[in-house]
Amino acid sequence: MPLKDPDPSQNFFDAIVVGSGISGGWAAKELCEKGLKVLLLERGRSVEHIVDYPTATSKPWDFPHRGRMPLKDLKEYPIMSRSRNKLNEATAHFFVKDADHPYVEEKRFDWIRSWQEGGKSITWGRIALRMSDLDFEANVKEGISIDWPIRYKDLAPWYDYVEKFAGISGSRDGIDHLPDGIFQPPMPLNCVEEELKEAIESHFPGRYLIHARQAHLTQPTPEQTELGRASCQYRNMCSKGCPYGGYFSSQAATLPAARKTGNLTTRPDSIVHSVIYDDKKQKATGVRVIDRQTHETKEFYARVIFLNASALGSTFILMNSVSGRFPQGLGNDSGVLGHYLMDHHFGVGASGTYEGFKDKYHFGRRPNGFYIPRFRNVGKDQRDYLRGFGYEGNTKRPRNTSPEDFGITMKNAAAIPGPWVTELSGFAETLPYFDNHVRLSDKQKDQWGLPQLVMSAEYKENERKMRKDMVNDAAEMLEAGGFKHITTFDDWKGFGLCIHEMGTARMGHSPKDSLLNRHNQVWGAENVFVTDGACMTSSSAVNPSLTYMALAARAADFAVREMKKGNL
Ligand SMILES: Cc1cc2nc3c(=O)[nH]c(=O)nc-3n(C[C@H](O)[C@H](O)[C@H](O)COP(=O)(O)OP(=O)(O)OC[C@H]3O[C@@H](n4cnc5c(N)ncnc54)[C@H](O)[C@@H]3O)c2cc1C
Ligand code: SF4
């Protein structure tokens, strides 16, 4: 179907936001609420809240293959099918078919893409944690890479601001390096987790087991209910889209808030090709767009441009934006654009069974677990590697069936829950390395004639060393908690599979070694802001998206103040 404009003659806006995922939704909301006419460009299809969640209320038996993708369909997802638990019949429509969007793997890179309106805000795991000065100061203290140009105090009010609107459930735990936020009540730990918490905190001073901090409503505010959002129903079906708006997504939260202002124009199926830079004016004037369906090209113009196409999407656009002034890509005087690519490393930890509490069960289908914040290289702890890791944990009482059971035997067995099983799964910081990078292919193009990205990144010695502790520490904590049958795992995953890709257009103090200044402005093109994961100077060990939200809201506020002063 050809693309329709709300008003086809209208191609001048106050602001353009590229990408409608977690960070782009925030940029659009903030700019609209501050009175700017905003064009939100999205490369993927339109996804309407509730209407376009076709499987949201489906049961496992509603799927023709009980959730598993048939082999013929898997062929269209060669990257995602490397890790089948990420791909199933219930959610495949929220991920792009890899075969349609090829890239070059100089080194293995598992790039998981939700290219649609709402981006990965529909598919994310919703763990929402703050970074701290342990993270912001690490590079400069250790002499790694470059210093962050901001500190926790710069971001703290913006974390407050985004948490209040997004709705984060969690408890205030008073841990310096995992700062508390504005939380709605936490989802309760179950009896085994309470027991494990006590064991860990008494055996290992400095280690804590805390409630998951997650973007789920447990006590919605009037602002949230006015947007049509409701408390989480404990269904654990979030990856199919939430018809209650129980978790934070662009569809449930930021986009309706932006629309309420009357200032938002959204344009799905619009692939941003590049930013238009005017050498004489020394600023960007707009963007070039390719229609996803018709392949027609079009230009849109604005006073400020926010790139929120996800880390590699925004970096692609910067690299593809060449001009007389910036022959190596927009803002790339330093030559670091595309470099210092990071992802967290994971797939490592331990699990065990708990033999008590056989008369107890858990409440509902809680869509989260618990968290053990980083304790390595914190305070006096000193390891033979830099940085650290946290654990995401979960306890279940799975059914007591075995694959051999059939008929009545299977039904009887399914009625009795098995023993409690707890898993601790580590998520760890990766250092920023210059040679971990992406670049544009000079040979391979996609179906729109755009150069493909070449991926070239790998984990190194520091990450390898850390994983020994990630296995051993998990096992020793379960042991201290009285768990039995403890098994450990250390399953290296492809770079990218943690889906926390970040870096490649980092923030810094100087255009000599960074792309963005402390307000996320592109050096030399100050009316262009990049407020997604591309801007990250280091990766921390915590899940990153809350930080992108805070950075996007902060930069939008700054941009509008600068526009009012006539500086942009
Ligand atoms: C299964 C899963 C679990 C996750 N769990 C967590 C978690 O628990 N906690 C956490 O913090 N993070 C988690 N993440 C990561 C999180 O989803 C991302 O960090 C976050 O969505 C990044 O936000 P973003 O705005 O940068 O990108 P996205 O949300 O990916 O949005 C980018 C948007 O830009 C669009 N776009 C791209 N290129 C162009 C272009 N050229 N022109 C126009 N539009 C374009 C895309 O279509 C997309 O809609 C998870 C992700 C997944 C998939
Ligand atoms: S568990 Fe909660 S947030 Fe997830 S889909 Fe159900 S109601 Fe929505």
Structure write-up:
- There is one protein chain.
- By secondary structure, this protein is α/β, with parallel strands linked by helices.
- The protein has twelve helices and 19 strands.
- It has helices at 22-33, 71-74, 133-136, 138-142, 152-166, 191-203, 222-226, 250-260, 311-320, 407-414, 461-480, 545-564, and strands at residues 12-18, 38-41, 104-105, 168-169, 183-184, 210-211, 264-267, 270-278, 283-291, 297-307, 345-354, 370-372, 389-396, 420-428, 437-445, 451-456, 484-490, 521-522, 525-530.
- Strands 1, 2, 7, 8, 9, 10, 18 and 19 form an eight-stranded mixed β-sheet that branches.
- Strand 18 (521-522) and strand 19 (525-530) form a beta hairpin.
- Helix 1 (22-33) runs parallel beside helix 8 (250-260), helix 1 packs parallel to helix 12 and helix 5 crosses helix 12.
- It is globular and about 75 Å long.
- It starts with 11 loop residues before the first strand and ends with a helix.
- The chain binds flavin-adenine dinucleotide and iron/sulfur cluster.
- Iron/sulfur cluster binds at residues 216, 232-238, 242, 244, 246-247, 367.
SSE inventory with pairings:
Elements: E1 12-18, H1 22-33, E2 38-41, H2 71-74, E3 104-105, H3 133-136, H4 138-142, H5 152-166, E4 168-169, E5 183-184, H6 191-203, E6 210-211, H7 222-226, H8 250-260, E7 264-267, E8 270-278, E9 283-291, E10 297-307, H9 311-320, E11 345-354, E12 370-372, E13 389-396, H10 407-414, E14 420-428, E15 437-445, E16 451-456, H11 461-480, E17 484-490, E18 521-522, E19 525-530, H12 545-564
Parallel strand pairs: 1-2, 1-10, 2-7, 3-16, 4-5, 10-19
Antiparallel strand pairs: 6-12, 8-9, 9-10, 11-14, 11-17, 12-13, 13-14, 15-16, 18-19
The structure holds flavin-adenine dinucleotide and iron/sulfur cluster.
